[in-house]
Specification:
The two termini are 18 Å apart. The protein has 17 helices and no strands. It has helices at 7-35, 39-42, 56-62, 70-93, 98-119, 124-156, 160-174, 178-191, 197-221, 225-233, 238-249, 251-267, 270-275, 282-285, 294-297, 300-318, 320-328.
Length: 334
């Protein structure tokens, strides 16, 4: 698509986008405002736009007992997160392997999430948040890893068998989500995996695997085969060429695919609700706060809605550059 050079046309486009973003952002901004009010302010008519904000709903959501040194603990949490990000970027500048960087981030956050309940008395919402992180990260790692190998094989080795695999994957992708619930529920009952991380990750990987396979196959098809052949001529094995040559080239595509899989796993409601009793993720857990006794006591439901949304905003903003590169490099051609 050619860029619009007419000034009036550009003005109309930017005006339309501004109006669209304003309309779609209004519910979230209203929820943020309501979460910073007490119950009386939240129920005031007409609505209050100038008020003294309070974070009582957030502290009630995350803590059973609010620690006295909460500001210092929050500062420490921010410092630890910044230290992890700075360390990862420093390793990237020194040309460290991406696997080492990913392992550093995963181990660091594992220790952080383990340490927090040892320091403060966290509420149920913290457990739901940790469940969501474990299930989402596990789903992304397995789905993207398997789909990278499968997408590479289907892109390089065509034929009837490859076409059949893609058709079957597309057919599974088109099935309703509820079609997976009963078989997996019976399997979990027989194997004893009911209400476990393994079950949730396995189900969500199967649910999002076809999409990731199609996406990554498209990325591999955009990479000339001569690149890996040149590496193999120089003595590299096919696996070495795949890991050291192809993966760095299509890294934006892997990141964008992983991000879309993460969004799908994060948003999943029906399967998590059917297959778990305690290990709820945030989309299911938020029903505990909305339309229950919490709604008549304080503004915790608004705070819960904000806390469910903010991680996705941070994730998209942090990886927006790779997401744009990946989606604009031809992976959406199908």
């Amino acid at each position: 698509m050619l860029p619009v050079k007419n000034p009036f046309g550009r003005f109309v486009i930017y005006l339309t986008l501004t109006i669209y973003v304003s309309i779609t952002s209004l519910p979230f901004l209203w929820t943020v405002l309501q979460s910073l009010k007490n119950l009386r302010q939240a129920n005031a008519r007409p609505p209050l736009f100038i008020f003294k904000p309070t974070f009582e709903s957030y502290t009630s959501l995350w803590f059973r007992t609010v620690p006295k040194d909460l500001p210092w603990l929050m500062l420490g949490f921010v410092v630890v997160n910044l230290a992890i990000i700075v360390s990862a970027r420093a390793m990237a500048r020194r040309d460290a392997s991406r696997l080492a960087i990913v392992m550093l981030v995963l181990v660091s956050y594992y220790l952080l999430f383990w340490a927090i309940p040892q320091i403060v008395k966290t509420a149920d919402f913290y457990d739901f948040f940790v469940n969501t992180v474990i299930v989402t990260v596990g789903t992304v790692i397995i789905a993207v890893s398997v789909s990278s190998l499968g997408g590479y094989a289907l892109a390089r080795y065509g034929g009837i068998s490859g076409a059949m695999i893609l058709i079957v994957a597309l057919a599974f992708q088109s099935l309703p989500v509820m079609a997976f619930a009963l078989p997996y529920f019976q399997l979990a009952t027989v194997t004893g995996l009911q209400d476990s991380y393994v079950l949730l990750i396995m189900v969500l990987v199967g649910l999002h695997q076809p999409f990731a396979l199609w996406m990554l196959r498209s990325f591999f098809m955009d990479i000339p085969q001569e690149i890996e052949e040149a590496a193999m001529v120089d003595g590299a094995s096919r696996l070495t060429a795949f890991v050291r040559i192809l993966i760095p080239i299509m890294w934006p595509g892997i990141v964008s695919t992983g991000l879309l899989v993460a969004l799908g796993a994060y948003h999943e409601f029906l399967l998590v609700r059917v297959l778990t009793q305690l290990r709820w993720t945030l989309p299911v857990a938020i029903t505990k706060y909305i339309g229950t006794v919490y709604s008549s006591i304080n503004t915790v439901p608004y705070a819960a809605a904000v806390c469910v949304t903010v991680p996705l905003l941070i994730l998209v903003l942090f990886f927006q550059e790779q997401l744009v590169k990946g989606l604009s490099s031809g992976a959406v051609k199908g």
